[in-house]
Design a protein that fits this description.
54% helix; rod-shaped; alpha+beta
Length: 183
């Protein structure tokens, strides 16, 4: 009987020790899993912060590197109060190309207050010999302003006689030049 009671005590103690150790193991496992999760979340947060800091530095570098280009960009727009200068520049193409240049339906639109970009539009008619007309078109295309050329039409006005006179051509198109309003 004594053996039986000692054996039952040892078995009960073993079962109790097993249950306590299993409970402690489960508790430690849960605590460790929570700590690993918290550590991984903290690590993600730190990496996101570092990426945001690097991106911020890149934006600042890009801003500083583009300062001269931003100034150049503004030169592509005609100040709204100087729209006449753009019209005069278009009219001066007549002298540079040797052709006849007529601007008609000149209109200035101020644009939206929000985006500050307006435009000066006109219908352009160029008359002259082929090389003069093409030179004028090239000069219009290379104006140093932000522009849009649409509805280009070219036609023969008068055929020249062989060896005596050159043919005369007519070129018509719509041009729109961007203007920028002051803030």
């Amino acid at each position: 009987m004594k053996k039986h009671s000692i054996q039952s005590t040892v078995v009960a103690f073993s079962v109790l020790a097993f249950l306590v150790s299993t409970g402690l193991y489960a508790y430690m496992y849960g605590t460790t899993a929570d700590l690993v999760k918290e550590t991984l979340d903290a690590r993600k947060l730190v990496m996101a912060s570092q990426a945001a800091r690097a991106q911020g530095k890149e934006v600042v570098r890009l801003y500083e590197d583009s300062s001269s280009k931003r100034e150049q960009l503004l030169s592509f727009f005609v100040p709204a109060e100087n729209a006449v200068d753009a019209i005069l520049a278009m009219e001066s193409i007549e002298d540079d190309s040797g052709s006849s240049v007529e601007l008609s339906y000149i209109k200035s639109s101020p644009g939206d207050v929000k985006d500050r970009i307006g435009k000066v539009t006109s219908v352009v008619m160029v008359k002259g010999e082929w090389r003069q007309v093409m030179k004028a078109l090239e000069l219009f295309e290379t104006l140093s302003y932000q522009k849009s050329i649409k509805n280009v039409s070219i036609g023969l006005i008068e055929a020249g006689e062989t060896g005596k006179s050159a043919s005369r051509w007519s070129l018509t198109f719509d041009i729109s030049i961007a203007t920028l309003q002051k803030i």
